[in-house]
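lol forgot to send this yesterday, sorry. struct tokens for the thing we talked abt
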């Protein structure tokens, strides 16, 4: 039997995308570090959560939540990252937009650009970009994943590799404590790597809840990217980025 607070911790963990730090928990529940540690140890012993350095995650997931559910999780953080990403892309650029809810938010901000050429397998991103006739959008073919609202498979990966673009924008399922970038399937991983191989500048977009979130497939490492766009950065992740020589941007930089 879980206590009322432990039940609330699980609900809070799920609502925040599957990763929480101990400091977030002590602040949110207004209890001591020792009390939270006791709760987390008990939840971990029951297999309900997984202890990681500095906090907890949900047990390793083999499947992601549906796109519809993910759209509303950490929405403000994703909108913030989308503004940062749109500011990085000059008019007239070519780019890849990968799968996920953050890239779809980015597409909604890119719709105000002109002269873009965008290649994507993200159905929602493609629909958003249709709002601007001055953006040339390529939707790759392949197998549609109904719950993820995207296109995957060998055909989609092959089509990505036919392009060479200025910017490759990738979301990610999780970032491990060693800096590995995680996804939920091999199909996602192949597409992820195809974007990296065919982009001049590679931009990783991930809200801070993705740090220490678990997923079963390694797709790359922080060092494979040229820029990380996020809403805020935990101290441990900041250290990993410094070691990987990966610049991090959390706020818009005003131009002179």
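and heres what i got for the seq, position by position
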């Amino acid at each position: 039997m879980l206590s009322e607070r432990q039940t609330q911790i699980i609900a809070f963990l799920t609502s925040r995308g599957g990763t929480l730090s101990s400091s977030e928990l002590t602040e949110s529940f207004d209890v001591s570090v020792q009390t939270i540690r006791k709760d987390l140890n008990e939840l971990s012993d029951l297999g309900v959560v997984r202890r990681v350095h500095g906090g907890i995650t949900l047990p390793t997931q083999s499947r992601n939540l549906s796109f519809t559910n993910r759209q509303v999780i950490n929405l403000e953080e994703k909108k913030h990252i989308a503004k940062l990403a749109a500011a990085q892309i000059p008019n007239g650029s070519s780019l890849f937009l990968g799968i996920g809810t953050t890239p779809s938010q980015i597409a909604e901000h890119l719709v105000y650009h002109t002269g873009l050429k965008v290649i994507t397998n993200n159905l929602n991103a493609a629909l958003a970009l249709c709002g601007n006739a001055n953006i040339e959008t390529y939707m790759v073919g392949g197998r549609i994943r109904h719950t993820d609202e995207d296109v995957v498979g060998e055909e989609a990966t092959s089509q990505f590799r036919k392009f060479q673009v200025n910017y490759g924008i990738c979301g990610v399922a999780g970032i491990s404590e060693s800096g590995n970038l995680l996804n939920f399937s091999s199909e996602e991983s192949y597409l992820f790597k195809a974007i990296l191989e065919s982009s001049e500048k590679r931009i990783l977009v991930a809200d801070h809840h993705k740090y220490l979130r678990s997923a079963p497939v390694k797709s790359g490492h922080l060092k494979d990217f040229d820029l990380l766009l996020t809403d805020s950065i935990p101290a441990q992740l900041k250290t990993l980025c410094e070691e990987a020589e990966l610049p991090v941007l959390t706020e818009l930089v005003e131009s002179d």
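The chain has two domains: 4-57, 67-249. anyway ping me if u want another try
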